[in-house]
Amino acid sequence: MVVSHIDSVKIIRNSAPYINAHRGKTFVLMFGGEAIEEANFANIIHDIALLSSLGVRLVLVHGARPQIDQRVALRKLETRFHQDIRITDKQTLECVKDAAGSLRSQVEALLTMGLANSPMHGSHIRVCSGNLVVAMPIGVRDGVDFEHTGVVRRIDVDGINDHLNDGSIVLLSPMGYSSTGEVFNLSHEDVATKAAIALKADKLILFSHQDGIVSKDGRLLRNLELDELYAMLNEPFYASEKQSLQAIISSLQAGISRCHTVSYRQDGALLQELFTRDGAGSLISQTSYEQLRQANIEDVGGILKLIKPLEENGILVKRSREHLEQEIEQFALIERDGMTIACAALYPYAEERMGELACVATHSDYRGGNRGERLLSAIKKQAREQGLDFIFVLTTVTAHWFQEQGFVEISLDELPTKKKQLYNFQRKSKVFKLAV
Questions:
Q1: Do 225 and 328 lie in a common domain?
Q2: Same-domain status, 351 and 410
Q3: Spatial CA neighbour of 222 closest among 256, 258, 193, 254
Q4: Of 219, 299, 364, 385, whose CB neighbour count within 10 A is largest?
Q5: What is the reported pTM?
Q6: In a 10 Å sphere around its CB, with 0-12 CB exposed, 13-18 middle and 19+ buried, how is residue 240 labelled?
Q7: Are 27 and 57 in contact (CB under 8 A)?
Q8: Any idea what the Cα angle at residue 176 is, between residues 202 and 114, rounded to 5°?
Q9: How many other C-beta atoms lie within 10 A of the C-beta of residue 367?
Q10: How many Å apart are CA 176 and CA 88, to the nearest integer?
Q11: Is there a single domain that holds both residue 77 and residue 153?
């Protein structure tokens, strides 16, 4: 696809706020051994290098399960698991060392080679790894000795931060070392989660074989809250993703505000997720990605930008900036990543115990997502708190939507006296009322 010069400029302008927001932040990126074998992995490396050049502090955590399985099979060793955890005896540990070491070298080489034929050609990317993960054995569980399978005991935060402060990318393998010189096989999910928490990372980003977290009916769930993941954790449908879901849950519980899952098969998914408003995968946050709140004076510009197209088409009555500034406390809005995408206002007529619902608007890119219903619910609650019995609305175009929400058409005579005096007979707006 050929992108025009104008479109290229728009892309850069739209991504600029995210470039500024991400600079200096710490991201932990987690990908399994399956991702490294994918043909698109070279493109992921290019995008990781680009993130580094933009000032993002990156910690990469790779897995090695399929590569370990291959080596175990080649050596005709017995593969043993208990509760989905690999039991690592001495011979299997050699397979783990071989696989993890090989993959680490592969990733380091890709980031060091200058990224030929890529936008980052000629860039110098420094990659650092080492004994940055201190581990301890799982020990004996249910009478089963896991031998050289371990869990993360401690992350060398100072060591990692020293490398990040020097502008290096830090690469962590699914292995840890004890103070007694032993080596342990770790799950890369455990390493990534503990690293993100210890470093107080701004994001944990997981690469998946799917576009993100997908519902049972195959829909990509673009925005999720922590509470929604608890139910998924015990559903058979998500059994294969249990470790990834647990990593996200643990990270969010520990204070990391946002986690992402993106596809390792889709070219550019990482950049699209980080530098566009709607992303490419799933965003999981502690609280809703879209915030419904009361407007304040700083929101005037965003509301004006939102309602301008509707005013130009005659759907809404025009409001000046001065008018909006005076009435801003009447407005509620939905904000998505700093952008106002929907708004509505309530003007009370206390004597008649009625309120006018006005200036209901949703950005054209975000219609159909029940945002209007969320705003209406908030306005109804606000009306009840103010002692109102009904809300009414005047509309020329969207009568059907209000009727779907339970509004019924009324005559002009039922409007509050002051509103009747201001009624514009040229617009011929229909009037609808709803009990709150």
A1: no
A2: yes
A3: 258
A4: 299
A5: 0.71
A6: exposed
A7: yes
A8: 60
A9: 11
A10: 13
A11: yes
Alpha carbons 175 and 149: distance in angstroms, whole number: 9
Both 107 and 180 in one domain: the answer is yes
pLDDT digits (tens, 9 = 90+) for 328-386: 999 999 998 788 999 999 999 999 999 999 999 999 878 776 788 889 989 998 999 99
Q: Cα–Cα distance between 31 and 64 in angstroms, integer?
A: 9
Are residues 228 and 318 both part of a single domain? no
Buried b / exposed e along 147-170 (16+ C-beta atoms within 10 A): bbbbbbbebbeeebeebbeeebbb
Which of 287, 320, 339 represents a domain boundary (last residue)? 287
Cα–Cα distance between 226 and 392 in angstroms, integer? 37
> Distance between CA 33 and CA 270 in Å, rounded?
17
Name the residue range of residue 73's domain.
Answer: 5-287
Q: Residue 154 phi/psi, 5° resolution?
A: -160, 145
Taking the C-alpha atoms of residue 98 and residue 71, their distance in angstroms, rounded to an integer, is: 8
Burial class (CB in 10 A: 0-12, 13-18, 19+), 406: exposed
How many CA atoms does the CB half-sphere of 222 hold within 13 Å? 13
Largest Cα span, the chain: 89
Question: How many separate domains does the chain show?
Answer: 2
Q: 69 has which bridge partners?
A: none
Euclidean distance between CA atoms 340 and 353, whole angstroms: 30
* CA distances to 220, 281, 295 from 367, in Å: 17, 20, 20
Dihedral (CA of 379, 436, 358, 399) sign: positive
In this structure, what CATH number is given to the domain that contains residue 94?
3.40.1160.10
113 C-beta neighbours (distance < 10 Å), count:
12
Taking the C-alpha atoms of 375, 366, 205 and 38 in order, what is their torsion angle to the nearest 10 degrees? 150
What pLDDT score was predicted for residue 123? 62
Give CA–CA dist 436/432, Å, rounded.
13
CA distance 174 to 101: 10
Asked if residue 182 and residue 217 are part of one domain, the reply reads yes
Two tokens at 413? Answer: 């005579």
Residue 153 CA to residue 137 CA, distance in Å, equals 9
pLDDT tens profile 181-240: 899 999 999 999 999 999 999 999 999 999 999 988 888 988 888 888 888 888 899 988
User: What's the first-to-final CA gap in the chain, in angstroms?
Assistant: 51
What is the C-alpha separation between 328 and 295, in angstroms, rounded? Answer: 6
317 and 197 share a domain?
no
**pLDDT digits over 107-133, tens only?**
988 887 655 555 555 567 789 998 999
Tracing tokens 């399956």 back to the chain, one arrives at 34
